[in-house]
């Protein structure tokens, strides 16, 4: 493969992908990653009911958000491991890893990898987790984003990570006071970190597939058995 001026050389690209594979091997395991299978779509929310005393009727008493009960220690450990995938300055920043992979393959495979780039781009951008699919907060209050604005679970996840799990960001912690329940906060962290883990999984898969098909212009380090 001909090197283009200003692009990374093969030694640098190899080092970046080897480093990512080592980190992915460490991160893609354990109860959070295993909380939902790769083939499952979404999380199974269930309404909890109980019988009204003295009747044959049931009433809704709450919602099970469908995520496992994980301790702060487990969440903090996973957030710390995943941080290298969404922090821009990290060598393992996922969008840049995908770019390095695309620079390392032929034109046909590069076109195929546009789908991977899109998949990663819907869950991490500019150093933060993105893509809200659940909202919480108080419409009558200024939730830190502006009066009448609800907090998306992507914002909640980032606030919980930096305002509680990894750091003590006061602004992030203040926004968390507007979130309806502790369960909602944990749901946000688990779902968004799991989205990121799945994107990392498929990035790892595509790197190893390109290597197996002899598409890379260098040899990856030998990978340990799964």
Number of strands: 6
Pick out the low-confidence regions.
1-6
Roughly what is the average pLDDT, rounded to an integer? 86
* Structural class designation: mainly alpha
Can you write the helix and strand succession as a string? HEEHHHHEEEEHHH
What percent of residues adopt helix (DSSP H or I)?
Answer: 40-55%
How many DSSP helices? 8
CA-based shape: elongated
Radius of gyration over alpha carbons?
Answer: 21 Å
The major β-sheet equals: 2 strands, antiparallel
Folded structure, characterized:
The protein has 226 residues and is mainly alpha-helical. The protein has one domain. It is built from eight helices and six strands. It has helices at 10-27, 72-86, 94-103, 107-112, 114-121, 153-165, 170-176, 182-212, and strands at residues 46-51, 58-64, 124-125, 128-129, 135-136, 151-152. Helix 3 (94-103) packs parallel to helix 8 (182-212) and helix 6 packs across helix 8. Residues 1-6 have low confidence and may be disordered.
Could you outline the blueprint of secondary structure elements for this entry?
Layout: H1 10-27, E1 46-51, E2 58-64, H2 72-86, H3 94-103, H4 107-112, H5 114-121, E3 124-125, E4 128-129, E5 135-136, E6 151-152, H6 153-165, H7 170-176, H8 182-212
Antiparallel strand pairs: 1-2, 3-4, 5-6
Structure summarized in a few sentences:
The chain is mainly alpha-helical and 226 residues long. The protein is 48% helix and 9% strand.
């Amino acid at each position: 493969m001909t090197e283009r001026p200003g692009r990374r050389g093969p030694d640098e690209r190899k080092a970046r992908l080897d480093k990512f594979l080592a980190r992915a091997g460490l991160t893609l395991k354990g109860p959070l990653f295993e909380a939902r299978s790769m083939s499952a779509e979404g999380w199974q929310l269930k309404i909890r009911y109980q019988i009204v005393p003295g009747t044959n009727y049931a009433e809704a008493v709450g919602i099970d958000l469908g995520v496992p009960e994980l301790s702060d220690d487990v969440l903090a450990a996973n957030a710390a491991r995943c941080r290298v995938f969404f922090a821009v300055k990290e060598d393992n920043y996922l969008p840049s890893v995908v770019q390095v992979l695309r620079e390392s393959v032929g034109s046909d495979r590069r076109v195929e990898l546009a789908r991977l780039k899109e998949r990663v781009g819907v869950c991490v951008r500019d150093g933060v987790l993105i893509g809200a699919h659940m909202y919480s907060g108080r419409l009558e209050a200024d939730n830190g984003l502006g009066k009448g604005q609800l907090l998306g679970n992507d914002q909640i996840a980032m606030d919980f990570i930096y305002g509680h799990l990894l750091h003590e960001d006061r602004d992030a912690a203040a926004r968390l006071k507007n979130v309806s329940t502790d369960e909602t906060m944990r749901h946000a962290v688990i779902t968004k970190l799991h989205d990121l883990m799945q994107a990392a999984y498929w990035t790892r898969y595509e790197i190893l597939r390109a290597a197996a098909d002899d598409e890379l212009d260098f040899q990856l380090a030998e990978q340990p058995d799964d």
